């Protein structure tokens, strides 16, 4: 208590003038600090005014309404190829056998072919935005019927092979006539390869396969019919396994695909397909630039090769070889004389 009392007495003993000096010193220090801050604020304000002056000196930007670019006139000379393959028109796909992913019977077959012709024409219109198309091809690559080549097909097919051929002729004729009328092309061509399902023999024939194949007979009779009724339509019905065609300067080799050996496994069908392609090419002075192949019920494009999907879609065969599921479809390929393949896409056959 004594110490506190002495401290209080000492403070009271400070002269009034000294206390005033201390307060004045503090006020001067505070004033100097405020003056420095004011000076810095004035400097920043000046810099900002200079920036504003620079921006306002820029010319006014005119905002234009966004417009769609004009569609230029397609250039070049090109041909469209509609690939029809692996219809299996007489076969049955029970949804319970394929985990509910697909269903197929003769009624569905007819409905899908109707969709095919309409969508092919729509895709042709789209392709004309890419290039000038004056030539049209229908490439039928076989297995349009399932036939009786396996015992289970004799048990499950919805009709016999001859009935199926009659139905296929009707649908193929209808489609060709529709495309011929509405495709707007000067040249119309039909290319035909037979598959392995249309044969009448138990084993595949190599040298005489066309003689015992219902599809080859179908193509040949249709070619004779159109030769009489539409002589400007060109047909090329192959007797051998391979059919090579020059399409706008692109050498293209067509085949059904059953001579490409594959039983499932790592890497997929592309590995045996590449090996087969290389084997065929080494025997030729001028190998084709492209191979177009059916049979494997799947769409795949790589440089120099296009695998085409099936109209029947995912079935027990596809499941057995562990094929990836794909929707039922066919394929359209557009060849340009200068650029090669400018389009290769699925043509979906379901709404």
The overall pLDDT, averaged over residues, is 89
Query: What portion of the residues fall into strands of 2 or more residues?
Result: 15-25%
Poorly predicted ranges (pLDDT <50, ≥5 residues)? none
What is the end-to-end distance? 102 Å
Order of helices and strands: HHEHEHHEHEEEHEEEHEE
The major beta sheet can be summarized as:
6 strands, mixed
Helical fraction: 25-40%
| DSSP E strands, number | 11
Q: What overall form do the CA principal axes indicate? A: elongated
> Helix/strand-derived class?
alpha/beta
Radius of gyration: 39 Å
- Adjacency order of strands in the biggest sheet: 4-3-2-1-10-11
How many helices? The count is 8
Your description of this structure?
The chain has 351 residues and is of the alpha/beta class. It has a domain at 78-239 and 309-348. It is elongated. The chain has 8 helices and 11 strands. 38% of the residues lie in helices and 18% in strands. The mean pLDDT is 89. Helix 3 (106-127) runs parallel beside helix 5 (161-182). Strands 4-3-2-1-10-11 form a 6-stranded mixed sheet, with helices on one face. The protein has a 5-stranded mixed sheet with strand order 5-6-7-9-8, with no helix packed on it. The longest helix has 41 residues, at 16-56.
């Amino acid at each position: 208590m004594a110490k506190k009392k002495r401290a209080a007495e000492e403070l009271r003993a400070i002269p009034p003038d000294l206390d005033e000096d201390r307060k004045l010193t503090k006020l001067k220090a505070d004033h100097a600090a405020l003056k420095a801050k004011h000076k810095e604020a004035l400097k920043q304000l000046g810099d900002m005014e200079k920036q504003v002056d620079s921006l306002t000196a820029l010319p006014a930007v005119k905002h234009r309404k966004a417009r769609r670019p004009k569609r230029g006139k397609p250039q070049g000379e090109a041909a469209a190829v509609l690939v029809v393959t692996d219809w299996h028109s007489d076969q049955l796909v029970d949804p319970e056998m394929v985990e509910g992913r697909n269903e197929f019977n003769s009624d569905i077959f007819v409905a899908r072919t109707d969709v095919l012709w309409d969508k092919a024409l729509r895709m042709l219109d789209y392709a004309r935005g890419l290039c000038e198309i004056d030539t049209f091809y229908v490439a039928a690559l076989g297995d349009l019927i399932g036939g009786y080549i396996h015992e289970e097909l004799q048990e499950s097919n919805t009709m016999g092979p001859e009935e199926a051929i009659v139905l296929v002729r009707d649908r193929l004729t209808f489609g060709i006539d529709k495309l011929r009328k509405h495709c707007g092309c000067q040249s119309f061509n039909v290319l035909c390869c037979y598959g392995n399902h249309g044969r009448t023999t138990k084993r595949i024939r190599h040298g005489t396969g066309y003689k015992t194949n219902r599809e080859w007979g179908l193509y040949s009779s249709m070619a004779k019919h159109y030769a009489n009724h539409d002589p400007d339509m060109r047909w090329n019905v192959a007797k051998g396994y391979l059919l090579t065609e020059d399409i706008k300067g692109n050498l293209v080799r067509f085949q059904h695909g059953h001579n490409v050996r594959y039983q499932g496994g790592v890497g997929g069908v592309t590995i045996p397909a590449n090996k087969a392609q290389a084997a065929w090419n080494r025997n030729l002075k001028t190998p084709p630039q492209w191979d177009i192949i059916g049979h494997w019920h799947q769409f795949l494009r790589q440089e120099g090769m296009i695998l085409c999907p099936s109209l029947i879609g995912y079935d027990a065969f596809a499941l057995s070889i562990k094929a990836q599921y794909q929707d039922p479809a066919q394929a359209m390929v557009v060849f340009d004389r200068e650029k090669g393949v400018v389009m290769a896409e699925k043509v979906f056959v379901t709404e």
